[in-house]
Specification:
The protein has four helices and no strands. It has 121 residues and is mostly helical. It starts with a helix and ends with a helix. The model has no long low-confidence stretch (mean pLDDT 84).
């Protein structure tokens, strides 16, 4: 169990490091277009792997419950952050369509997942 927590911590740290490198929040470096393209590709591939492929097989009911709970927390955190970003940008009269699309996609996927789960079980 301790090894899994270490792996999860390392994956989270690597994902944060790639995101910080990609965003360059303090303009510490001036990367070329090629470096930014490679960083964006690396961030996308790593995020897809960490989100969809890594550790998706639950072994028992407890692991299923923990995955459901962590998924719920992740959904609430993501939708909360997107909602706050939409509100802040609405006050500035410049709402980014990607924020609205991402929040709408999350809500639609949640509803579709509930319908599918009710249909299957």
């Amino acid at each position: 169990m301790r090894n899994n927590k270490l792996q999860e911590s390392i994956i989270a740290a690597v994902l944060i490091a790639i995101a910080v490198f990609l965003l360059n929040p303090f303009n510490w470096w001036m990367p070329s277009n090629v470096v930014m393209l490679i960083a964006a590709g690396l961030a996308a591939v790593f995020a897809i792997y960490a989100s969809f492929a890594w550790r998706e097989q639950a072994q028992d009911e407890r692991e299923h419950m923990l995955r459901s709970f962590s998924g719920r927390i992740a959904f609430l955190a993501g939708s909360g952050m997107l909602s706050i970003a939409i509100i802040v940008q609405a006050f500035a009269h410049q709402v980014d369509p990607w924020l609205v699309l991402a929040l709408s996609g999350m809500v639609i996927a949640k509803i579709a997942g509930l319908w599918w789960a009710e249909y299957r079980h």
